[in-house]
Design brief:
By secondary structure, the chain is α/β, with parallel strands linked by helices. 27% of the residues lie in helices and 17% in strands. The protein has six helices and six strands. A six-stranded parallel sheet has the order 3-2-1-4-5-6, with helices on both faces. β5, α5 and β6 form a beta-alpha-beta unit. The chain is globular, with a radius of gyration of 16 Å. The chain starts with 33 loop residues before the first strand and ends in a 16-residue tail after the last helix. 45% of the residues are buried.
């Protein structure tokens, strides 16, 4: 997180209850510059729908507000990938998000970090997206890696804690704590209900979220 002073007069708006700071730091929730990032790991067993908590409802609320939906497919580093011949239907089964996702932007990375060897950064910048709502699975692997990288690249990131699934639930506390340390070194954390409320009160994007940008893996 990089906090800069702003000298211009603007109506400030933030998501209620975020920690460790009021998100976004600039106090501007502009749906045209906001992306709901849904990180997935298609080569691993998908989580049950209930593990993803509020994510399906959050996707629909974001879409109504004009927020672009960004699907990011991650995968293990090359040396850890399962040979194609050893994959089973269970490992590549459909995600419970498939029917509700309908993304506007799709990127496929070559590792757990969704920005690694992918088109994600160029597509976000082309769409003028500067603020990211981080969701999906797995929290402590792909979601966390992508959020850290996005923060380093200048995106203002908010992890929606009840819209992520952890591969190992016992690591959830540590994963959240590492985002919050040093005043929000990797961004901030909030919940879906507060995000939905903030989006409903924010100016909507002039671009229709139903317009699909070019998809490439």
């Amino acid at each position: 997180m990089t906090q800069l002073s702003t000298s211009f007069d603007v109506d400030r708006s933030t998501v209620a209850g975020t920690r460790p700071y009021a998100w976004p730091w600039d106090g501007i929730i502009d749906c045209s510059k906001l992306g709901l990032v849904v990180v997935q790991a298609p080569d691993s067993p998908p989580p049950a729908t209930e593990q993803l908590g509020s994510l399906p409802a959050l996707i629909e609320s974001a879409r109504r507000a004009g927020v672009r939906i960004v699907q990011v497919d991650t995968q293990p580093p090359f040396q850890l990938r399962m040979p194609r011949s050893e994959r089973t239907d269970d490992l590549v089964g459909p995600s419970p998000l498939r029917r509700s996702l309908r993304p506007d932007i799709v990127a496929r990375s070559s590792g757990w970090n969704g920005f690694f060897e992918s088109s994600l950064d160029s597509k976000l910048r082309h769409a003028s997206i500067t603020h990211l709502l981080m969701t999906g699975y797995w929290l402590e692997i792909g979601v966390h890696s992508t959020m850290r990288a996005g923060n380093d690249m200048g995106y203002e990131c908010l992890l929606v804690e009840d819209a992520v699934a952890a591969f190992e639930p016992s690591l959830t506390g540590n994963s959240l704590s590492s985002i919050e340390m040093s005043g929000g070194i990797f961004g901030a954390i909030g919940n879906a209900a507060a995000v939905v409320e903030a989006l409903a009160a924010a100016p909507q994007s002039s671009q229709s979220a139903s317009v699909q940008l070019e998809k490439q893996s």
